[in-house]
Amino acid sequence: MELLSEHACFGGVQGYYRHDSAETGLPMRFSVFQPPQATQGPVPVLFFLAGLTCTEETFMIKAGAQRLAAQLGIMLVTPDTSPRDAGIEGESASWDFGVGAGFYVDATQAPWSKHYRMYSYVVQELRQTIIGNFPARADRIGIFGHSMGGHGALTLALRNPDIYRSVSAFAPIAAPMQCPWGQKAFGNYLGADQSVWAAHDASALMRTQQTPFAAGILIDQGLSDKFLAQQLLPQEFEAACEQAGQPLTLRRHAGYDHGYYFISTFMEDHLRFHHQILSA
């Protein structure tokens, strides 16, 4: 693991790192904010999964999360959104697929299957890297994300409730099987069999479960989000939660769009939501 840069931040440390990933077969970058409490011993960890076109830096620079994370004693971790420089023809041809758009799945279709393994990278390899190299509590891990990363946070949590104790999202792609972004990504990464897609669709997953997160799930959605009607479909996840008996707080906010001004506005609510569960 290589330290790329390190910065004092609200009494803690903001670091950027690179390591050779066994899962992707390529160097991967990630960022970690260690709160001041981490100097005294292991602290809870909150993973944030970013959206399309973002990197490991986007959340740490734009979300304004470190100040409160330092007060609450929460470590923040953000991976990159895809492998980089895989040498795949066309991997950078579009902004919503390929580079910057790994969709947090393990691709099964060539040529993507060799390197695009973001599900296993985040759930297993990066998590173990954090636990092994930072003062992180392995039994106090939460996950949240935005847009494509909101999709990732919901699906990773629903598939691994033994790992992730808390989950929330900002404007998630809540039913990717039913929207153009998800159909494009899943068709290329996972193939034509939509029964395989269902394992990576939060709404489809929720319909197969019964109250997986008894402490609740928090989602914030802006009503001026230009992607709301065609790509995000939060109402599908809302209906699935009702069917599964899953407590859900889905807050709809007039005037807010899809960007980080929206995310930073409600960041404190999400950090306090996770802190309450992870510190219980």
SSE pattern:
EEEEHHEHEHEHHHEHHEH
- Strand content is 15-25%
Shape annotation = globular
Cα-based radius of gyration, to the nearest Å: 17 Å
DSSP strand count: 9
The secondary structure category is alpha/beta
Quaternary organisation of the protein chains: single chain
Going across the major beta sheet, what is the strand order?
1-2-3-5-4-6-7-8-9
Low-confidence stretches: none
Largest sheet: 9 strands, mixed
Measured between the Cα atoms of the first and last residue, the distance is: 32 Å
Helix content: 25-40%
Global mean pLDDT? 97
Separate helix tally: 10
Question: Can you describe this structure in just a few lines?
Answer:
The chain has helices spanning 58-62, 66-72, 118-133, 148-159, 180-190, 194-197, 202-206, 228-232, 234-244, 260-278; strands at residues 2-9, 12-20, 27-34, 43-49, 75-79, 136-146, 166-170, 217-222, 248-253. The chain is α/β, with parallel strands linked by helices and 280 residues long. It has a nine-stranded mixed sheet, with helices on both faces.
Name its key features:
alpha/beta, nine-stranded mixed β-sheet, globular
Notes on the protein architecture:
This protein is α/β, with parallel strands linked by helices. It has 10 helices and 9 strands. The protein has helices at residues 58-62, 66-72, 118-133, 148-159, 180-190, 194-197, 202-206, 228-232, 234-244, 260-278, and strands spanning 2-9, 12-20, 27-34, 43-49, 75-79, 136-146, 166-170, 217-222, 248-253. Strands 1-2-3-5-4-6-7-8-9 form a 9-stranded mixed β-sheet, sandwiched between helices. The longest helix has 19 residues, at 260-278. The two termini are 32 Å apart. The model has no long low-confidence stretch (mean pLDDT 97).
